[in-house]
Amino acid sequence: MIDNATLLIAIAFSSAALMIALLISWLNAREDNYLMSWAAGMAFVVVALAVLGLRDGRYDTALQIGAFSPLLSGMALIHLGSFQFATASQRRTPTLLLWLAAMFSTNLTFVLGWSGPATALLNIWCAVFIALSGRYFWQARRESPLQMIVSVVLFGLTSLSFLACAIALVVEGNLVLSAPPNNWAERFNSIMAIIGLTGLGALGLTLNQSRVTRRHRDEAQTDAMTGLLNRRALFDRFSLGELPEQTAVLMFDIDHFKQINDQQGHGAGDAVIQHFGNIMQRGVRKNDVIARIGGEEFCAVLPKMSIEEARAIAERIREDFDQHPARLLAESFPATVSAGVAIAMAGETFSVVLNRADTALYKAKRQGRNRVAGSLARSVA
Length: 381
Known about the structure:
Elements: H1 4-28, H2 33-53, H3 61-87, H4 93-111, H5 115-139, H6 145-172, H7 184-220, H8 231-238, E1 248-254, H9 257-264, H10 266-283, E2 289-292, E3 297-302, H11 307-323, E4 326-328, E5 331-333, E6 337-343, H12 350-366, E7 372-375
Parallel strand pairs: 6-7
Antiparallel strand pairs: 1-3, 1-6, 2-3, 4-5
Protein name: diguanylate cyclase
Pfam families: GGDEF
Transmembrane segments: 6-27, 34-55, 61-83, 95-114, 120-138, 150-171, 191-207
């Protein structure tokens, strides 16, 4: 069997390597705060292991507090990073309260001279921090089910290994330890720490890279001003094959938009664009698709819709925009919008239906703007 000192060295090197990898990943994506929390947690673990390596068989109070305090801090930061990763929340209060409870109960027990119960408490708190980290990954498993579930298993086994150390100490029943614990649970814990750190580190970095890739893809397909899909994303979604029958395509164009930019300034124009994007979002159903496809042009794709229903939705959006002007600071900027509506017929592609909706839009423009025109078939009605 490998001795405990060798296992501690292996854990220290694994922790240090993982800390460096996480820190490099964070430097490339500084908005991902969970990477920094995990890296800081690994740094504290390395400090704790370095202190443990200096004990030379001793188990006095000062040395153990010096080793176990950074270990608890590292576990708390791993817990915080897992919470941030799974919930996208930056709240630190729950972790801070748990950390304070762990530090106070463990160190007070050491100061009172009960090194056996204190060491058991340390292992219990480590088990709690790791188990809660696994729980957060379980709650977020829909994001990447396989990787998340494997992470939960590793968190669970590592937590159980700490709990086994606590149970072994309780069974032995020693209030005062004259030497570091050396039993089957300690060796199991050391091995699980190596496996857990290596596996969870690899999975954490893989999950982070997947998030970065999705974020870049979303940014490439999102209009920065309104948060809606852009033209490329819209055509990527609907360009292949025929559009299902009874799918409505609505085209909107803000009337006299160039005059708004020229007379009121580009800030006013941006405010009008953003305001209309918000009105479109609240004017359609949850599963409908909306996009900004040009400067002042917008499109909505509404499945399973009759021409009358589609025109009613377009009319509601037009009226809302007309009656509720955009605002920038204390100033309002009235504007109107024209719309064209088309319903997909059998065998029509998205481009064909979009062209019919666009033709209907220009019909509304010719008829005086601030109105909705419809296309019933392959020609404008």
